[in-house]
UniProtKB/TrEMBL annotation, chains A, B:
Pfam families: NAPRTase, NAPRTase_C, NAPRTase_N
Protein species of origin: Rhodohalobacter mucosus
Keywords of the record: Glycosyltransferase, Ligase, Phosphoprotein, Pyridine nucleotide biosynthesis, Transferase
Example GO molecular function: nicotinate phosphoribosyltransferase activity
Enzyme class: ligase
Domain Nicotinate phosphoribosyltransferase N-terminal: 10-131
Protein name: Nicotinate phosphoribosyltransferase
Pathway(s) per entry: Cofactor biosynthesis; NAD(+) biosynthesis; nicotinate D-ribonucleotide from nicotinate: step 1/1
Described function: Catalyzes the first step in the biosynthesis of NAD from nicotinic acid, the ATP-dependent synthesis of beta-nicotinate D-ribonucleotide from nicotinate and 5-phospho-D-ribose 1-phosphate.
Catalytic activities: 5-phospho-alpha-D-ribose 1-diphosphate + nicotinate + ATP + H2O = nicotinate beta-D-ribonucleotide + ADP + phosphate + diphosphate
């Protein structure tokens, strides 16, 4: 489960509103909320959706234990309401795109339906789970794209992750395309391959670097990665690593890699590669770490730095420099009526009604653009730009996929739990269908997301009602 | 406790190194590690140290349960080493500055002593706890400084916090100077005041805004904050709030506040204040939220926006735009000998030996500057710039405080557990002694941190040893 007490991993106002609805006798009325985000982080062209399975599991366990109801009693919530919560469990429906899906701004990628109380109560934890994991899966995907499919990218971020956020940062990184992690806790919890070898302190704890390397190789002959920059990378680190590589070879083993953790990685990796190659160790890989992100890795790639393995920490797990996805959860219908929130900021005006998403395809199967339709629309002729309706696209001749599926119905889970590996494979399959212009790390092409004429009409009618 | 299985909330290499030390028979040798950071986040002038109590509590519970040793067995760790871990507990010493202390780059503010295995093994979780909480306490302090002592600043960040990082983000925000939170989970866990009233969905769930406001006021007459921007702030929101304020007044209650969550907060707060004042509601406060941080708040302050309460979310809890403190944990002595790590980057060269910190004071009791000395030094005449020794300061006539204290000795906790309130009060007391030039949000004055001649000599001798 996500957390031991999910019902109180929430904002206080979810509880005051829930009680208000209960006392006003409104809590059983039907409501529906949309989850969507407004801005792609990292100035990128897409987001990888992650966190869904954690959300599903958490909702199954969202109940109020005695310690929680005692807290509510101390906070002066009414006995009547607390009795209601004692029997609370989520009995609503959830429709969502699959975990690992490629998503875009403004799309209602997840919809929650149920009674007003339950749909409101889960807002904060839903946002907390989906916003963060989608953020990190997106960052991981960008880093993997920069490093290239043939490279190995490893999560080294736990020491700089935002407290216990490290748990799900690693989960999300794997969904986004990472190959492994140093994080033992998450590896155990999510069945992810973990690994790691030595820190500078290992080298410092021996009288000399060579003894430090030899000792490590003695105990881990089939999994030795030597950190070569404690004293002097080229004068001491790499030559000592080569000596140990020879000694391992004589015993029938191979040195796996050397790791560079400071200095100019392009320069040192090239020099080290030459030294290793000249000694005949073409198969000893070069790993690099130290403040890496997709931009540094791109720069290393364009310089042809011979790095095989990238260890990425801080900037991956914190989503630097965009440490939050701005996902929101907005009421879209209540008591069977579509609902709207108006704002001074045009892009903050919501889309009313229960909606679904069609993803239109190009001839070759790649993604053309997405349309937001009302749930009961079967087919549309064209889609409109959400805030500039004169701009529209004809979609009559295009194939489409309906990308939202029911995942919870009346509180029951409908979808099997997937492994992280399977979710990551789905992400890859989908990302392969996104044309490369949208995957560009900087100034990507903007993916088309439109709304149907019906969605537009309902919004415009409601705007008039509230503004007069 | 910080987490249910703290022993495996770690990087894998801590375990491979620990086993290596154990198998090589080195694990009982004495070692000492320093925790310090290199760069102040947010381009600020100081950092607020936070997380210490969580670290202390966690170390008390850092043991290997059966499920953890089973994992290690599957990962092919040796039976001998696993037996050792089954009886493991941290029996070392920790010296640290107090939680809430004002700290600066390069200072070894926390030192861990013990055997090599235990001091190495706790690295990752120590960094995870201290880096994040110090980051957020620092951000919170900056926001409180910008808002001013008389303002109320509230943490609204849970929905955008980095997953479970939200738990300690709130704890750290309170240490840094926040007055309350919306986060119910952390409020319960750390005994913090929590609060909150309504979202836009509350207003949308009623036929009209006035009914929504009235219903809320009916159930919470002594704690009503009305969100006024769902449809039209000045045409509808504020006038409806004033009607409800009158109705509450007739029943002997007072409307507590209105909240603005979009649009130009300077403009709307001024207009709303006028409307409230003209209706006689001088005591109804104005709360504002929406992408706030210390810079936006400073701007609102300079425009004399009449805002009493600031709700700060995303940018507080994620430490935007510097989402990590770069704290590190470096070996400083081993087997009784001082140890050094060299680097191509001068500022990454470590300070060897067991050290302490003297904080020198000005005549008026404010902080003058800090010196890093060897543990056995009693008095020094001058301190030197760490990387430019020709720059030095005479400190002979200055009073000083020794700011590091023993907090754990042979595994036993020496210090009483403080409330968050007490830690925050200490932070305030110390911050008051930092001259305002260092608290400036942009281009702050740089606080003096020097090293003693003895520290410098040991470093320089060891540099020569390793570089020849």
């Amino acid at each position: 489960m996500y957390i031991d007490n999910p019902a109180t991993y929430t904002d206080y106002y979810e509880l005051t509103m829930a009680q208000g609805y209960y006392l006003a006798g409104m809590h059983k009325k039907r409501a529906s909320f949309d989850y969507f985000f407004r801005k792609i982080p990292f100035e990128g062209g897409y987001v990888v959706f992650a966190g869904l399975q954690e959300l599903i599991n958490t909702l199954q366990h969202l109940t109020f234990s005695q310690s929680e109801t005692e807290y509510l009693r101390r906070e002066k919530f009414s006995d009547e309401f607390i009795s209601y919560l004692e029997n609370f469990s989520f009995k609503g429906n959830i429709y969502s795109v699959r975990e690992g899906e490629i998503i875009f701004p403004g799309e209602p990628i997840l919809r929650v339906e149920g009674n007003l109380l339950e749909t409101q109560l889960i807002e904060t934890i839903l946002l907390n789970i989906l916003n963060f994991q989608s953020l990190i899966a997106t960052k991981a995907s960008r880093i993997k794209v920069a490093a290239g499919e043939q490279s190995v990218v490893l999560d080294f971020g736990l020491r700089r992750s935002q407290g216990l956020g490290g748990i799900h940062a690693t989960r999300a990184a794997m969904i986004g395309g990472f190959d492994g992690t140093s994080n033992v806790y998450s590896a155990r919890r999510f069945d992810i391959p973990a690994g790691g070898t030595m820190a500078h302190s290992w080298v410092q704890s021996f009288d000399d670097e060579l003894t430090a390397f030899r000792t490590y190789a003695k105990y881990y002959p089939d999994d030795t990665v030597l950190l070569v920059d404690t004293y002097d990378t080229l004068q001491s680190g790499v030559p000592n690593a080569i000596r140990v590589a020879k000694e391992l070879q004589e015993k029938g083993y191979s040195l796996k890699a050397i790791r560079l953790d400071s200095g100019d990685l392009a320069y040192f990796s090239r020099k080290a590669r030459n030294m290793l190659d000249q000694a005949g160790f073409h198969d000893v890989k070069i790993a690099a770490s130290n403040q890496l992100d997709e931009r540094v890795i791109t720069s290393l790639r364009t310089q042809d730095a011979p790095i095989d393995i990238f260890g990425v920490g801080t900037k991956l797990v914190t989503g630097h420099p965009s440490p939050a996805l701005d996902g929101v959860y907005k009421l879209s219908s209540f008591g069977g009526e579509p609902k709207l929130k108006i704002s001074e900021n045009i892009e903050k005006i919501t889309l009313p009604g229960k909606k679904k998403i069609f993803r239109y395809l190009n001839e070759d199967g790649t993604f053309y653009g997405d349309a937001i339709l009302l749930q009961d629309e079967k087919v549309i002729e064209r889609m409109h730009h959400p805030t500039f309706p004169a701009q529209k696209s004809d979609v009559r001749r295009r194939r489409h996929e309906e990308i939202m599926l029911p995942v919870i119905e009346k509180g029951n889970i409908l979808t099997p739990e997937l492994t992280i590996e399977a979710i990551s494979a789905y992400r890859k399959e989908r990302l392969d269908k996104l044309q490369r212009e949208f995957k560009r790390l900087e100034f990507p092409h903007i993916y088309k997301v439109g709304i149907s004429s019906s969605v537009m009409e309902i919004r415009d009618v409601l705007m008039k009602v509230h503004k007069t």
